[in-house]
Amino acid sequence: MVANANWNRKKPAWADEVDDELPAPEIINNPDGTKTVISYRINPANNKKVRITQKVREVKKKERVDHSVAERKKWAKYGAEKNSGPGPNVTTTSVEPDQAFKLGLKPSKAEEEAEAAAKAVAEPAPEAKIACRICSGAHFTSRCPYKDTLGPADAAADKAKEPAATTPAAAPAGKSGSSYVPPHLRAGARPSDRAASNHGERDDSTTLRVSNLSEDVTEDELRRLFSYCGRVVRCHLVRDRDTGRNRGFAFVCYETRSEAEKACEKLNGYGLDNLIMRVEFSKK
């Protein structure tokens, strides 16, 4: 009965058998001078034995090494490599190429000068300092916030150097050497004509500064709106130099001070294009 039970027992397949110890690697010398290395390992995915075949070529290279290094290569091996020959075993040891180490030398004077010249060329040139001709600030003169109330600083300095010129008094035609009398010196001349004859010296007592304006407002709209309070001599809407859009403020000049005061009183806080305007006298 025991013999029959052992005879009927199913034998396991060869693929299902997993040895506890893997076979030793095999090295086969080929006729072309290469070596075929056959090794085995266990695949962790399915726990089965895997055969690995590698074809390698040994290259002998002569090099000069220190005497102590050469002696150390002759030491007897121990452990799993006890009976192996001299030199590393390619089946168990990964040999990497030697890394040459060279000490850097101090650069010569010519190399330092060449490096300095290349660095000077690579560095950008220093930016020129920008100075406003009106307030001497670090911005362009066209973007000065005081350009409508102050004159250029260099023009004022040149004017101070010039001797004071006497203004001829108003004289009737025919009593002087010439019969022509300038309009601003004639009898009944308007204040706007006198202000225009001062060559840059404006009378800002009748000038209003209008701020908090919409980007869509135009000079014609401002002129029509402020004309209800008096005669508008000049209306200037300040625009950006690059984009052309208005910067949200303008200057309106009246003929008389009373008209400017009336406009400041009536239109300060007036709504234009969903914005509340702020109207005040221009500051010198």
UniProtKB/TrEMBL annotation:
<feature type="compositionally biased region" description="Low complexity">
    <location>
        <begin position="163"/>
        <end position="173"/>
    </location>
</feature>
<comment type="subunit">
    <text>Component of the eukaryotic translation initiation factor 3 (eIF-3) complex.</text>
</comment>
<dbReference type="InterPro" id="IPR035979">
    <property type="entry name" value="RBD_domain_sf"/>
</dbReference>
<dbReference type="GO" id="GO:0003743">
    <property type="term" value="F:translation initiation factor activity"/>
</dbReference>
<dbReference type="InterPro" id="IPR017334">
    <property type="entry name" value="eIF3_g"/>
</dbReference>
<feature type="compositionally biased region" description="Basic and acidic residues">
    <location>
        <begin position="58"/>
        <end position="73"/>
    </location>
</feature>
<dbReference type="GO" id="GO:0005852">
    <property type="term" value="C:eukaryotic translation initiation factor 3 complex"/>
</dbReference>
<keyword id="KW-0396">Initiation factor</keyword>
<dbReference type="GO" id="GO:0016282">
    <property type="term" value="C:eukaryotic 43S preinitiation complex"/>
</dbReference>
<feature type="region of interest" description="Disordered">
    <location>
        <begin position="58"/>
        <end position="95"/>
    </location>
</feature>
<dbReference type="InterPro" id="IPR012677">
    <property type="entry name" value="Nucleotide-bd_a/b_plait_sf"/>
</dbReference>
<dbReference type="Pfam" id="PF12353">
    <property type="entry name" value="eIF3g"/>
</dbReference>
<comment type="similarity">
    <text>Belongs to the eIF-3 subunit G family.</text>
</comment>
<comment type="function">
    <text>RNA-binding component of the eukaryotic translation initiation factor 3 (eIF-3) complex, which is involved in protein synthesis of a specialized repertoire of mRNAs and, together with other initiation factors, stimulates binding of mRNA and methionyl-tRNAi to the 40S ribosome. The eIF-3 complex specifically targets and initiates translation of a subset of mRNAs involved in cell proliferation. This subunit can bind 18S rRNA.</text>
</comment>
<dbReference type="Pfam" id="PF00076">
    <property type="entry name" value="RRM_1"/>
</dbReference>
<feature type="region of interest" description="Disordered">
    <location>
        <begin position="155"/>
        <end position="211"/>
    </location>
</feature>
<dbReference type="GO" id="GO:0033290">
    <property type="term" value="C:eukaryotic 48S preinitiation complex"/>
</dbReference>
<keyword id="KW-0963">Cytoplasm</keyword>
<feature type="domain" description="RRM">
    <location>
        <begin position="206"/>
        <end position="284"/>
    </location>
</feature>
<dbReference type="InterPro" id="IPR000504">
    <property type="entry name" value="RRM_dom"/>
</dbReference>
<dbReference type="GO" id="GO:0003723">
    <property type="term" value="F:RNA binding"/>
</dbReference>
<keyword id="KW-0648">Protein biosynthesis</keyword>
<dbReference type="InterPro" id="IPR024675">
    <property type="entry name" value="eIF3g_N"/>
</dbReference>
<protein>
    <recommendedName>
        <fullName>Eukaryotic translation initiation factor 3 subunit G</fullName>
    </recommendedName>
</protein>
<dbReference type="InterPro" id="IPR034240">
    <property type="entry name" value="eIF3G_RRM"/>
</dbReference>
<keyword id="KW-0694">RNA-binding</keyword>
<dbReference type="GO" id="GO:0001732">
    <property type="term" value="P:formation of cytoplasmic translation initiation complex"/>
</dbReference>
